[in-house]
Amino acid sequence: MKQAWWKESVVYQIYPRSFCDSNGDGIGDLRGILSKLDYLKELGINVIWMSPVYKSPNDDNGYDISDYQDIMDEFGTMEDFDNLLAAAHERGIRIVMDLVVNHTSDEHKWFVESRSSRDNPKRDFYIWREAKDGHEPNNWGSAFSGSAWQWDETTQMYYLHCFSKKQPDLNWDNPKVRDAVFDMMTWWCEKGIDGFRMDVISMISKPEGLPDMPVGEGQLYGDTMAPGGTCNGPHVHEYLQEMNRRVLSHYDLMTVGECAGVDIPNAKRYANCDGSELSMVFQFEHVGLDSGSANKWCTDKISLPALKENLSKWQYELNGVAWNSLFFCNHDQPRIVSRLGDNSPKSAKCIATVLHMMQGTPYVYQGEELGMTNCPFGSIKNYRDIESINAYHELTESGLRQPEELLECIAYKSRDNARTPMQWDDSANAGFTTGKPWIMVNPNYTAINAKAELADPDSVFHYYQKLIGLRRQSKWKNEIVYGDYQLLAPEDPEVFSYLRRRGKTTLLVVCNLSPNNRDFVVPDGVMWDNAELLISNDETPELTKTLHLTPWQAAVWALR
Ligand code: TEU
Ligand code: CA
Questions:
Q1: Is 99 touching ligand 1 by the criterion CB < 6 Å?
Q2: Where does residue 155 rank: exposed (0-12), middle (13-18), buried (19+ CB within 10 A)?
Q3: How far is ligand 1, taken at its centre, from the CA of residue 332, in Å?
Q4: What strand order describes the sheet that includes 157-160?
Q5: pLDDT of 502-538, one tens digit each?
Q6: Where in the chain is the domain with CATH 2.60.40.1180?
Q7: In the chain, % of residues over pLDDT 70
Q8: First-residue to last-residue Cα distance in the chain
Q9: What is the mean pLDDT of residues 83-112?
């Protein structure tokens, strides 16, 4: 298998708004990130992916960009960015930018021109349609509630927005849009950045004729992300191959496509090892396993056998032909220790072991390395996320859901759970800001914070540091990065165990993802004589045919 630096990396995702505030306005910023580079160096990561830092009115916290080549006022200046990039490179840390080009902000100059008149040269930069029988052109719903179409009085037409109405979709079928995007990407590459995470890149090619989509149970609109909708559209691979030819292939970049709705066949194309499109993709099947039949607003738990089957499918299918990203957390997902664990540090370490010993590039989301948990927001007034707030109002005002039960689901699944301020220490506001934070701080910051964990050799932080060290520096790094994967005991409802094999070495990974003591019989065929323990989150477990596992115990051995 071809080796590459981005296959041997561990990426740390920063949500700048909530990471570190350097000027006391309650909002994280670039200088705040600069001040924490040594912390990230200590953790051992070698790539930072920053959520968008470009000019934005922040309708969707920066995922609505009004100028791709300038820095958001709240985050600082382009000089601050240049200083951050240089300082990261000095520490051997690469920086990957968040590329949001499925849509812009409605305040972007392209859209201001496009909406000004039907014959403006920029009109076809976006997707405009006449009303149909006096109504929206089709039944598509926005991911942030309501219709995906917004009526524009000036030119008496609708424009498409798959997200908020302040995020009009770009028309990628227009070669002038592709030219403008590729020019902007080249401008950033010439500044020396190290790659792009590409926001909903699987959605840039819309289906011919924009057909109505099925309306799911408990839904009010057609689901654009269902098969045949906006994901994996007719020209998406053609446009990405063009992007690769015209921009990506000219630089040494890591690229990861955020591919809502991606399946294995499309992933093998997006993340093809032949380098024709992207380095890797984010797939979302595993973090969709606890979505109800209607939508994500439920409190269902993830079934472990289903999770084992799904993650194993991706390990088997992409091995040797494409490349996996490995994540449980990001700025859109609730905290995994609350979703799959029991909020305990030991369960956080167990979950991390499951992910970090697989084949693929692991992503650590800010605070995940501390075991940060979901936040008790309580009232809907304490939420800031457009997705949660709009869903609450649409679903309760339509009578589809009752406020109390829906609020329980929002508490469990809201993106805001990942967006509470990073917990640096036990001083006011967890050391995130000296001002009033833009969103509430999780009250458990007095117990869960970086300062305390840096001082505790048994902390979640030091466990992540060890996992990252195993992958990046240890004598086992090639087995961990490139070894083949084999799931063990698929039917076990609590223990997630698998092998990694490369040459004469086999790694045995055993994780008891349950609060119960468990005996686990190591399947036949797994032989060992001089086993060596790589990592464990408990007293060293005796390696015998029947392992006696404590609650949430994880252990990895190298077997020769
Ligand atoms: O998210 C894409 C996406 O599908 C989201 O709707 C996400 O899956 C969902 O919120 C999970 O419940 C990307 C960005 O990551 C997200 O932050 C942006 O809001 C969205 O695109 C629009 O840019
Ligand atoms: Ca600030």
A1: no
A2: middle
A3: 6
A4: 128-129, 157-160, 149-152
A5: 999 999 999 999 999 999 999 888 877 779 999 999 9
A6: 483-559
A7: 100
A8: 22
A9: 98
Residue 457, classified by CB atoms within 10 Å of its CB into exposed (0-12), middle (13-18) or buried (19+), is exposed
For the domain spanning 11-103+175-376+421-462, the CATH number is 3.20.20.80
Q: Is 368 in the pocket of ligand 1 (CB under 6 A)?
A: no
CATH 3.90.400.10 residue spans of the chain: 109-160
Q: How many angstroms separate the CA atoms of 5 and 40, rounded?
A: 18
199 in active site: yes
Catalytic entry in 258, 277, 385, 453: 258
Closest CA to 436 of 22, 28, 29, 24: 24
Average pLDDT over residues 102-129: 98
Class of domain 109-160: alpha beta
| pLDDT for residue 323 | 97
Torsion angle (degrees, nearest 10) of CA 514, 515, 516, 520: 30
Ligand 1, atom 9: nearest CA belongs to which residue?
Answer: 332
Report pLDDT digits (tens) over 63-85: 999 999 999 999 999 999 999 99
Is 217 assigned a catalytic role? no
Mean pLDDT of the chain: 97
CATH number of 483-559: 2.60.40.1180
500 C-alpha to ligand 1 centroid (Å): 33
Question: Of 194, 199, 223, 332, which residue is the catalytic one?
Answer: 199
Q: Is the pTM of this model over 0.85?
A: yes
CA 46 to centroid of ligand 1, rounded, Å? 25
Residue nearest to ligand 1 atom 2, measured at CA:
200
- Cβ of 126 below 6 Å from ligand 1: no
Confidence of residue 542 (pLDDT cuts 50, 70, 90): confident
All CATH 3.20.20.80 domain ranges of the chain, comma separated, are 11-103+175-376+421-462
* Three-class secondary structure of residue 499 per DSSP: strand
CA distance 109 to 46: 36
Quote the ligand 1 centre to 387 CA distance (angstroms): 9
Q: pLDDT value at position 541?
A: 82
At residue 173, φ and ψ (nearest 5 deg) are -70, -15
Q: pLDDT, tens digit, for every residue of 200-223?
A: 999 999 999 999 999 988 889 999
* Nearest Cα to Cα of residue 16 among 1, 2, 36, 46: 36
3-state helix, strand, coil in the chain (%, to 5): 30, 20, 50
421 alpha carbon, closest ligand: 2
**Residue 271 DSSP symbol:** T
Query: What CA–CA distance (Å, rounded) separates 285 from 291?
Result: 10
From the number of C-beta atoms within 10 Å of its C-beta (0-12, 13-18, 19+), residue 256 rates as buried
